[in-house]
Write a structure and sequence with these properties.
Elements lengths: L7 H5 L14 H38 L3 H9 L3 E7 L5 E8 L5 H7 L2 H9 L17 E5 L5 E4 L3 E2 L7 E2 L8 E6 L6 E6 L5 E6 L9 E4 L4 E5 L6
Antiparallel strand pairs: 1-2, 3-4, 3-11, 5-6, 6-10, 7-8, 8-9, 9-10
Length: about 230
């Protein structure tokens, strides 16, 4: 049996292992330095990547699985707002102080359909002419889908021809609020629910008398309460 002898590389490899006396161009020394540099570079790159992944995981966990303690604290510290309360009969019950409705995205997703969440919590817009209340003609009150605050009355509804339910005024001005919306490369006036900050739609100045305004709303942001007639 023939045993393997030394290879050509073994014959050429220096026997001196002392770094001080080893030739400067020694292949082993060059390979060690290269591996060391690559290892250090890999560690340097891995650290920031790991930190970014950790922050991402924390953010995802915070949004999708908030602790009960955090949710309770947010609700307890919610500011008070004034709204005008209405019965389903349309009767005005006066101004009341209520706590703002504060929920996490995960909680809203449990209460709302995907379209309702997209519209009210992400400022989305539903398709025109194919939404629930565009051609709705029953008498009643349109409430917020997120907190049931009364927003519009059927008495102020009109056919704008735009494909969305439109009103010339809210049922009570203090039940909504407005802010400037600079999205989609234009400037519009956004309308939101006073109590839960739900995005409702936008208001324009091309409406009918007596206000000249058009509150163009999303059906997905509303829930209709049919007018209750007085019982004899």
């Amino acid at each position: 049996m023939i045993e393997d002898g030394p290879t050509l590389w073994d014959a050429m490899r220096p026997t001196d292992t002392n770094p001080a006396t080893r030739p400067r161009n020694d292949p082993d020394d060059v390979r060690v330095r290269t591996v060391t540099r690559r290892s250090l570079l890999g560690v340097a790159l891995a650290i920031p990547v790991a930190l970014l992944l950790r922050r991402f995981v924390r953010a995802e966990g915070t949004e999708n699985a908030p602790s009960a303690e955090l949710t309770a604290n947010a609700a307890a510290s919610a500011p008070q707002v004034s709204i005008t309360k209405f019965a389903d009969s349309g009767e005005r019950e006066g101004v009341v102080e209520v706590a703002k409705v504060v929920k996490s995205d995960a909680e809203w997703k449990k209460l709302l359909t995907p379209e309702q969440f997209y519209v009210t919590r992400r400022g989305g817009t539903e398709r025109p002419f194919s939404n629930k209340y565009d051609a709705w003609h029953e008498r009643g009150i349109y409430r917020c889908v997120g907190c049931e605050t009364a927003l519009f009355s059927s008495d102020a509804k009109f056919d704008s021809g735009t494909g969305w339910p439109s009103f010339y005024q809210p049922i009570a001005k203090q039940n909504i609020y407005e802010k400037t919306d600079r999205g989609f490369f234009t400037v519009r006036t956004e309308v939101l629910c006073r109590r839960c900050d739900a995005h409702l739609g936008h208001v324009f100045d091309d409406g009918p008398p007596p206000t000249g305004l058009r509150y163009c709303m999303n059906s997905a942001a509303l829930v209709f309460a049919k007018l209750e007639t007085a019982k004899s």
